[in-house]
Structure formats: C-alpha cells, structure tokens
Automatic annotation (TrEMBL):
Keywords per UniProt: Magnesium, Metal-binding, Methyltransferase, RNA-binding, RNA-mediated gene silencing, S-adenosyl-L-methionine, Transferase
The protein's name: Small RNA 2'-O-methyltransferase
Gene3D superfamilies: Vaccinia Virus protein VP39
Signal peptide interval: none
GO cellular component, as recorded: cytoplasm; nucleus
UniProt biased composition (Polar residues): 485-496
GO MF entry, a single one: small RNA 2'-O-methyltransferase activity
Family, per entry: Belongs to the methyltransferase superfamily. HEN1 family.
Source species of the chain: Auricularia subglabra (strain TFB-10046 / SS5)
Cofactor(s) for this UniProt protein: Mg(2+)
Coiled-coil residue spans: none
Length: 502
C-alpha cells in the first residue's frame, strides 16, 4: 500500500513558517521611552505636556525627581556627567478617557511618594529627596478642545516647552486627526513636539510574504484595505506617508522636523532579500524655528478641557553646609562602612545626611573632597558615570574592636533630615479602565507577568496611553511593576514595566 506525501508548492512557505517570531530587546515600549527621554534631556526641557497620557506611565517617570541640582558636567578627567537628569518645573497630561485619568492621578496623589520626609529610614533604603519643586496637572478633554494654559511663551515661561504624543495619532478619528498639527503646532506653539506612531510597513515582518496575518484588523474607517495592529487604530502611516505628513505640517506651522525609527527585531528577517520593512516605530521631532507661520483657521471645540487634579511637589528646604562639615559626614559614613573609600552613589544615597548637607548639589560634595587633597581623593570612573567615581579618605583609621562594638548600629541612627522611602506597591489601577490604544504595542503589563526578558513584537507591548521609560544607567526601580489595565479584543499579551527616573 503506497501513500502520497503532499509537499508545498515551490516558493510557498510551510504552515509553521508562515508566521514569524519577532521580539525586541529592550522591549519596544522601552525603546520608544528611551527616545523620548533622550530628546527631552538633550534639549534641557523644563516643562512637558503628555497628550493622550492614558494611565500615566510616562508621567510617573517624569515625576521622579532629579538626583541632583547640577546642570553641568563636573570638570574632572574624564568629566563626570552629573547633569543628565531632567530638571522639570511643570508636567501635565491630558486624556479623553476619564477612567485612564483616575489611574494616572494615582501617580500624582499616591501617599507612597514620601519625598523629603523626616521619618527615619532603614539603612537599606536610599535617601529620596526632591531638590527642585514641581507642579503637575491632569486634564480631562479632547485634543481638539483648546486650552490656553498649554500655549508656550518662552518670554514668560508659561505653557509647555515640549509636547509628547506617544502612540496617539493612529487612534484619532479623521475629524480630530485634521486638527492634530493645527492645534499642537499652530495654537500651542511648543518649542518641541515629539510624535511616535507604528510604521505600517513593519506589519509585513510578522508573516511570510503574501500571508495575511489573522491577528490584524481591517481599517475601520474603510479608507484603505490595510490591516492594522490594533482594533482601535484608525490609520497606520507608511514611512513615506509619515515623512510627507510631518514635512507638510512643519512647513505650514514654522517648524523643522527630524524623523527617526526605533524598534529593530532581534531576529533576522528570513525574507530580507525580498522586502525592506524597516523598524516598528517611527518618531518625529518638530523644533520651532524662524520659518513663517502660514495663517489658517483652526476650529476647535467650544468647551475647554477641565482640570482633573493637580499637585505641587515642594523642594527640600535644606541649606548647604561648609565643606568641613560635609567631609565630616562623609567620614562618618565611611567609618560605618568600615572602609577608607566608597563610590559617589553610596555616599549620596546611603551615607547619613551627606546629600542634605550638600543641598542636593553633587558638585558641592566633589568640591569639598577636591579642596582637601592632603586628606581626600576623588578617582573618576573610566566610564565617566558619576555614581562609579570613588572617594577615598587618606586619613581613614579603622575602628578598634572595642570602638566597633560601641559604635551606633544602623537601627540606632536618628537624623531628621533623612527620607523614608518605602518599597510599597502603587495603588491598584481601576478595573474599569478602558484601553484607548494599542495593546500589541503600547500597554503596560499586569503585576503577575513573569516577563523580564525581551518582548515580542505583537505580544507584550504596552498600550499607547501608558508609556514606559528609560534605561539601565538611569533606571530607578523602587516600585514594583504596574498593575494591569483591562484589555480589549486587540490585546495579545503583556509585558513588565518598572518606573524609571527621567
């Protein structure tokens, strides 16, 4: 008895080869967050408005205080880059979804933010201070509802210097999309506008050529026959379309624009010789220029956004001490550490009272050390990362056994200037939160997610309303991963998200 084996037609992929495995490392939402934060840092932005802020994941990052007050690198060899944090004075978010704003407001109003507290902390808890005051606001309203508070004026410092629209534009219905650039660039006139959106060309990367992905969604507007990454997407630009849209908007409203792309998969495309799909996300940076603004009517809704909540974060009231007193505190810290040296990170965050004595200025600490070269020495790290630089006390004398036994233990430390900084969970997000963006690309993950490695392209990206943040060198993982959003039909999986320092 013979049997017939059916083989695929030539050039036709086998069933298991039709759908391709695509992952990103770091995960795609983190790569977008890195691009946003790097742009904001590089331009020394002092105020940010997050359009379509969703549950507030980007805002939670922007709310983290700068580690120091320093805004210039230290003149060491190599230079210590202590100035790379954002020094924000104003932060705001706006979203049309009230449930999302309830979640976002918990980042602003959470009692777990115990900055500048005088309560005693445990020795393993780093001192957590805010050296510069910050005002944060959340607004409820639509993009096409004009808010005069958003209008930027560099002369008076009012409004917002930078506006971020992360994974927002693809969710806009046609009548609101028509007002996106006119309102943001034509009315609010920020110095910088940052836009990210999925690249439609990249969708082909998830399948073999000619294969239709069953997870994709038909264009709900019926303007095209395209299939999108999420059921709420109203459009997805090709690279050429996004370029043309951005150039035209920049020309119309007096901006220059630079377009970049982030999100290259870890895997090689087995069909790379047949197609060029590019990266998963396209990013545009609009910069206000001296180009003439082309006047045009910009109709907006008559009802302005309403203030949902706000909070003022005060600066720590510390005053700087003299260099001798700063060195005395460093010496006490080294004595408790039982060594003649420690890196700046340890001294800044764990040596009792040192950062407060410097009033948040790391350059003041470094100046005190370098001012006493006979007794103290600073050795910058080869990487120029300030927290790796080593401070050594040349006159250090270890405690004798008797002195060590008599020395105060960490549980006896009392200092009203230290912070209580608990590793408490943030409040749970509203179960009723309605996703307003791409779970396949944008959604923050549930707390029970075990994902810690690279994220897959369609499976574990956070939703557009809930933006993630930065990178290993600046990651600040005090709080655990965020609780989950409720998901809709387009959510194919989840991923982990930790709050990070801006």
């Amino acid at each position: 008895m013979s049997s017939t084996v059916t083989t695929p037609e030539p050039d036709q992929p086998c069933e298991e080869d039709k759908y391709l495995h695509v992952t990103f490392n770091p995960e795609l939402y983190l790569q977008r967050q890195q691009w946003i934060l790097e742009v904001l840092r590089a331009n020394r932005v002092s105020s940010v408005l997050d359009i379509g802020c969703g549950g507030g994941a980007l805002l939670s990052c922007l709310l983290e205080p700068a580690q120091t007050t320093d805004t210039e690198p230290l003149e060491t060899e190599p230079a210590l880059n202590i100035h790379l944090d954002l020094h924000l004075k104003e932060v705001a978010g706006i979203d049309v979804c009230l449930e999302s704003l309830v979640s976002a407001s918990q980042h602003l109003l959470s009692p777990s933010r115990l900055e500048n507290s005088s309560e005693k902390r445990e020795p393993w808890q780093p001192a957590h201070f805010r050296w510069e005051s910050l005002t944060a606001k959340l607004w409820h309203g639509s993009l096409d509802s004009f808010n005069p508070e958003f209008v930027y004026d560099a002369r008076t410092g009012t409004g917002y210097e930078a506006i971020v629209a992360q994974e927002v534009i693809e969710h806009l219905v046609p009548e609101v999309l028509d007002k996106f650039a006119p309102v943001l660039l034509g009315l609010y006139r920020p110095q910088f506008l940052l836009v990210t959106t999925p690249a439609y060309d990249f969708n082909a990367r998830f399948t073999a050529p000619g294969i239709e992905d069953p997870r994709a969604f038909l264009d709900p507007t019926n303007r095209t026959e395209r299939r999108f990454r999420h059921d709420d997407h109203k459009l997805e630009f090709t690279r050429a379309e996004f370029h043309d849209y951005c150039v035209a908007a920049a020309h119309r409203f007096g901006y220059t624009v630079t377009i970049e792309h982030v999100g290259l998969p870890q895997e090689q495309d087995p069909y790379a010789d047949l197609r060029d799909v590019g990266a998963a996300t396209q990013c545009a940076l609009f910069v206000l220029s001296n180009l003439p603004l082309l006047p045009a009517p910009i109709p907006t809704l008559p009802t302005p956004p309403t203030l949902h909540c706000d909070r003022f974060f005060p600066a720590h009231p510390s005053l700087p001490l003299e260099s001798a007193e700063i060195l005395g505190l460093i010496g006490e810290g080294l004595t408790l550490l039982k060594g003649d040296s420690a890196d700046l990170h340890t001294l800044w965050y764990f040596a009792e009272g040192v950062s407060v004595a410097c009033a948040g200025s790391l350059s003041r600490l470094v100046g005190a050390v370098r001012g006493e070269p006979d007794n103290w020495e600073l050795t910058p790290a080869a990487s120029s990362r300030w927290w790796d630089a080593i401070v050594r006390w040349k006159a250090f004398v270890p405690l004798s056994i008797d002195d060590d036994l008599a020395a105060p233990r960490p549980s006896d430390w009392e200092n009203d200037s230290t912070a209580s900084w608990t590793m408490s969970d943030p409040p749970a997000w509203s179960d009723a939160e309605e996703p307003s963006a791409d779970p396949a690309i944008d959604d923050p993950p549930p707390t029970d997610s075990a994902t810690t490695g690279p994220g897959s392209g369609w499976d574990d990206e956070p939703m557009s309303g809930d933006h993630g943040s930065s990178w290993p060198a600046t990651i600040f993982t005090a709080d655990p991963a965020y609780p989950a959003n409720a998901s809709s039909g387009g959510d194919w999986s989840t991923s982990d998200l930790e709050p990070v320092r801006a």
